[in-house]
Amino acid sequence: MLIIHVPNTYISERTYIIKTLMHDFLAIDIRLLTEPRTDVMIEAHDNQAGRTLHIADALFQTPMCQWLTSESLPEQPLKVWDTTSIFNDVPLVSYKMPVIYGCKQEDHAQDNSYITETQNELYLGLDIFGSAFFMLTRYEEYVKPDRDQHDRFPATASLAYQEGFLDRPIINEYLEILWYCLKRLWPGLERKKRNFRIIVSHDVDAPFAQAFSGISQLIRNCGGDLLRRKSTALALQRAKSWRAVKQGDYRQDINYTFDRIMDISEKNGLQSAFYFKTACTDPVYDDNYSIDHPYIRQLLRDIHQRGHEIGLHPSYLTYNDPVQTSHEYERLRTACEGENIQQNHWGGRQHFLRWQVPFTWRNWVNAGLDYDSTLSYADHAGFRCGVCYEYPVFDLKERQQLQLTERPLIVMEGSVLGEQYMNLSGREAMAYMQKLKELCRQYNGDFTLLWHNSLFETPEMWEMYERLISE
Question: What are the E-state strand segments in 302-437?
């Protein structure tokens, strides 16, 4: 067991982030002691050797009158710590380490290093706990007013994007630095063994393209295939599909990709999660299908019988509406219970990735959901939370941990391929997504991928998807 001595300020915040990193991520037994001090000190339970690790405390030294204000944000440009000569055997993405929060010892203020060591004491000037709290709670999103046309916090406003580390799991790297320090002082420590996972999910915005539409919609869609997507083959496929659906075979619908998705997942030993909508709160941005339609009920049964997961995809206006969120989840559970579908846990993702800190998390807790997987930026894939591990969430306003797990979304296909977002070509897109996947593998984390059932428009899309989730 390790004893962690912390300053007697921001107790709830400190307890949350220290337990998340030390207990949840590393699985080390700890005990917290609060006392008047200005750093964090860690020692062994018996401490016979007198060894101690001191860690800088910067964010949580913020005066309460400046908490959750712009005065508490990291000073930009960030300082960069060149760790090349220190962490040769530590798995970092780059030895140039951005310092989100930190404080060097006074007598080493001019040195490049944020670490100093004596015989029994090690000082780490990188504020690991404060920096992790900043990233995992999405602190800056509460403080900064930036929003896009869908009231989403954009990637371009984030510290990670502006300082060039959105495409690296910075908190996983910080955790490896912490582990290096702990092992240097206490070589006998053991950490949690993790396995790399690929987690695939599919937001069911439009389960059918033609089942509920008439000839006029078909003409418009085919026109889009010809003029915007410049694909005669897709237009012909759509017309053929429409005819088959209207003759009674709804599984021939161009958006009905569910069987093939499940085939691919099962081939790779994966379980797909399909997140369904149960309401339309905005006719412009919500596809209006009924969870009670016989086609949808049969789809729910098929997914469950094949051992895949069903989840919630709350409608466009729910992200700051707790009553509507609960109502939509209740409708999903009622539909599933009507089909004798039972699951041990329930989660999902907000439509359009519309999310507001900390209110959307709070909505999910109040509704009774177990996990959320919304947190990626719509305009840029990467590590919005700075981590590729699931973690418990914290309510910045109420200053308490919530009974909800965040499953950070690393890649949404639309972010990478969409013309309005990163707009990468097939080869560039594949290379970028593979890069993020390999970084998750490096830390034995979770590569969480969203691919909509309605965005398998070409054979190239299927090939890219299969390559991405194959091992």
Answer: 309-312, 347-348, 371-372, 391-395, 400-406, 411-412
**What is the spatial distance between Cα 247 and Cα 162, in angstroms, rounded to a whole number?**
53
Euclidean distance between CA atoms 199 and 441, whole angstroms: 12
| Structural tokens at position 160 | 């990670």
Contact present, 386 and 136 (Cβ < 8 Å): yes
Query: Are the C-beta atoms of residues 406 and 391 closer than 8 Å to each other?
Result: yes
Helix (H, G, I), strand (E, B) or coil at 9: coil
Tokens standing for 329? 């989840």
Q: Give the burial string for 121-132 (b: 16+ CB within 10 Å, else e).
A: ebbbbbbbbbbb
Tell me how far the alpha carbon of residue 140 is from its chain's centroid: 16
Is the link from the previous residue into 77 a cis peptide, with omega within 30 of 0?
yes
**pLDDT per residue of the chain (471 residues) written in tens, 0 to 9:** 999 999 999 999 999 999 999 999 999 999 999 999 999 999 998 877 789 999 999 999 999 999 999 999 999 999 999 999 898 889 999 999 999 999 987 655 556 689 999 888 999 999 999 999 999 999 999 999 999 999 999 999 999 999 999 999 999 999 999 999 999 999 999 999 999 999 999 999 999 987 776 677 767 777 777 777 677 877 777 777 767 776 667 888 889 999 999 999 999 999 999 999 999 999 999 988 999 999 999 999 999 999 999 999 999 999 999 999 999 999 999 999 999 999 999 999 999 999 999 999 999 999 999 999 999 999 999 999 999 999 999 999 999 999 999 999 999 999 999 999 999 988 999 999 999 999 999 999 999 999 999 999 889 999 999 999 997
As a whole number of angstroms, the distance between CA 174 and CA 101 comes to 11
Please give the structure tokens belonging to residue 177: 């630095």
Global pTM value: 0.94
Contact indicator for 348, 313 with CB cutoff of 8 Å: yes
Measured between alpha carbons, how far is residue 147 from residues 100, 134, 232, 291, 422 in Å? 22, 19, 38, 31, 18
